[in-house]
Amino acid sequence: MLVLGIETSCDETAVALYDTDRGLCGQSIYSQTELHEQYGGVVPELASRDHVQKLVPLIRQTLSQTQFKLRDVHSIAYTSGPGLMGALLVGASIGRSLAWALNIPAMGVHHMEAHLLAPLLDQIPPDFPFVALLVSGGHTQLMFVRAIGDYSLLGQSLDDAAGEAFDKTANVLGLSYPGGPEIARAAITGDPSKFKLPRPMTDRPGLDFSFSGLKTAVKLEVEKRLPLSPESLADIAASFESAVVDTLVIKCQRAIAKTKAKSLVIAGGVAANKTLREKAQTLDCQVFFPPDDLCTDNGAMVAFAGHQRLTAGVSDSLAIDVRPRWDLARLDPV
Ligand code: KG4
Ligand code: ZN
Question: What does pLDDT average to over the chain?
Fold first, then answer.
């Protein structure tokens, strides 16, 4: 089955073709980073308008990378939530309309399930059951994954998501959006032990997270040192990165101990972070990350997640439905 995957939930317009026999056949991503950079974060209305302009050319471009024509596509998977309402509606409307015109099935994919399943696209995928740490701009969740679609929430952030903490802290440091890669870059020459920042909620039992206090702790340190020297900037960035990574890894270790799972998947935009990737290797289990280019938002993960359900005979009605909020634990098992 050849599936066309469409991702428009936030600030990346992304398209991919995934085939049962051939695997990932082609993909294109257009990032709106430059459009939103001057505002320090994503402006929803600008995001939607840009998706409208970019999506159809990107579908054409992706098809042209392969030997396939539009009529070869068997089904369509588009992100239908969670995400920005207007942005989701662009992918859902175009995905649904194409499916109707081609008379093929289509279905809405849960964006975080797509992130969670991305490591299954790799040569050596994890075996079920496993623990998944989902760390993106909007979510920080620890899930127990029994099978595709069979998820239980173990813990989640009570305030900012890990990616959001990177983005907001970058803003405090005068770095641009998105903050994760900027902080990681600034941290390379810094000393992670220079500033004693908290590892929030690790001093008590449980698997929930809280990152908003970390950003405030950084803000207080910055205010004492203005104007920031390049050395202080690097040290604060490294200390912040290390605090977030330590916190995530401590909670992962707890989740592994609690569930007795043998494997851990770390996925979502923050999974691109090199310090997190290194530190996670010290954990007492096998750790799986998506391939580097499939950590942040992409169409391949949406095509693949949709493929798992569409090949099981599941598809959605003709209605154009999106779900800006959508609980991952409520999905149906495949
Ligand atoms: O999954 P994603 O592309 O979009 C959402 O679904 O939100 O995640 C984007 C988030 C942003 O907050 C970005 O700052 C963060 O992932 N991010 C990183 C890195 N690359 C992206 N955070 C830390 N280190 C990175 N290298
Ligand atoms: Zn994402």
Answer: 97
